[in-house]
Amino acid sequence: MAQIIINNGKVVSGRNISITNGKITVDGKRIDVDENDKVINISVQGDVESINVDACEKVEITGNAKTVKTTSGDVLCQDVQGNVTTTSGDIDCNDVIGSVNTVSGDVIIANGINGPVKTVSGDIYKR
Fold first, then answer.
1. Integer Cα distance of 6 and 115 in angstroms
2. Of the candidates 93, 65, 69, 94, which has an alpha carbon nearest to the alpha carbon of residue 80?
């Protein structure tokens, strides 16, 4: 089970992370954060099943993920077993088994992607 650090403070454990309308849930349990926090950053240490975020500044995973999706926010991760999708944000990963999609952001891959890579208004780089 991964250790999840929210805004460099709150630490919880879990495998599925969701942020919807500023409300954070981990494995279906609501996680309270300081109401004054206008920016949400998620740091995951270990492997997770899924991350589904509508808005945050950054999701950083120092482990592997099965699927990662953000509407707004950068994604930094090791290996992804499924797809990585963001509407507005950069994607920086090692290997991706599935596809990588961003509408407005750059894609930076260290090793490889097995599926298609698509960005509307960004660049694709190999590290």
1. 30
2. 65
